[in-house]
Specification:
Blueprint lengths: L3 H9 L9 H10 L28 H13 L9
Length: 81
Amino acid sequence: MDNGDALRVCALNGLGFASLPSFIVGADLQSGALVSVLEAYAHLEFNINAVYPHARHLSSAVRAFVDFLAGRFGPRPYWDD
């Protein structure tokens, strides 16, 4: 299945395991509706990349957007707090 929300519902209904990001199942983990297993095999890292054309002077709009992304999705995403 390639739908995280559908996988979440299946896991909640006891239909098996699911490898899902914490922004989908964070509340379920906190409430105890789901439990984390096989943590040694979890994806420990992912990257978000901002790709833009090289320019000697980066526009302020691009710089502001990249700074926003870094703050929002920095070392620990806000949904894991």
